[in-house]
Write a structure and sequence with these properties.
- This protein has about 200 residues and is an alpha+beta fold.
- The protein has 7 helices and 4 strands.
- The longest helix is centred in the first third of the chain and has 28 residues.
- The chain is globular, with a radius of gyration of 17 Å.
């Protein structure tokens, strides 16, 4: 690829309604919210992520069109996932892979997500901004209410971050079961069997 070609395919932050933020600034902001706000800080990060999800999807749509692709909402899931991974990697977040569990929830898996910090040992998943951001992003993609729940996190010692994407009622049930000590996969399987 020529230098010109690389520049044509790169994400233009100015025109995409996004901005760059240093990792140090992001980490300091996140740490302060979690330190000073506890659970409230996690909720504030999720709310902030959700608030930007639709604009992020609009940027993704413009980015795909600039690459000569059709509207992302019209793409098959596999192609959508491939392009979304390229977009998020180019935006500095990391790569991702889309999947599903029991045809009940979608999954977003990533082994290099930048909100996660494997050097931090958290008791619970900690990619709060991303959780909200993915809910907003996929709600805009599907033009329907979508919720997200992080069930594995590199900051909590897992080899990957895994986010569940689906209906709010389904993910609320999964969250409640996980809080009771049930594994998330088992909770999802029970939902699939109960249909």
């Amino acid at each position: 690829m020529t230098r010109t070609g690389a520049m044509e395919n790169s994400l233009d932050l100015r025109s995409s309604n996004m901005l760059a933020l240093s990792r140090a600034s992001f980490d300091a902001l996140r740490a302060a919210l979690l330190r000073d706000g506890g659970l409230s800080g996690a909720t504030q990060l999720q709310d902030a992520g959700f608030a930007g999800g639709e604009a992020l999807f609009d940027s993704f749509r413009a980015w795909t069109r600039a690459r000569g692709q059709t509207d992302p909402g019209e793409l098959p899931t596999e192609e959508f996932g491939k392009l979304a991974s390229e977009f998020f990697r180019e935006a500095g977040w990391g790569s991702l892979q889309l999947g599903s569990l029991q045809d009940a929830v979608g999954t977003v898996d990533t082994a290099d997500w930048q909100e996660a910090d494997p050097a931090t040992v958290l008791e619970h998943p900690g990619c709060h901004l991303t959780t909200g951001m993915l809910a907003g992003f996929f709600a805009a993609a599907g033009d329907a209410p979508i919720a997200a729940l992080e069930v594995e996190c590199r900051s909590a010692g897992n080899p990957r971050c895994r986010f569940l994407i689906g209906a709010g009622s389904v993910l609320t049930h999964v969250f409640e079961q996980v809080e009771r000590g049930v594994g998330y996969e088992e909770a999802i399987e029970a939902i699939a069997v109960g249909r």
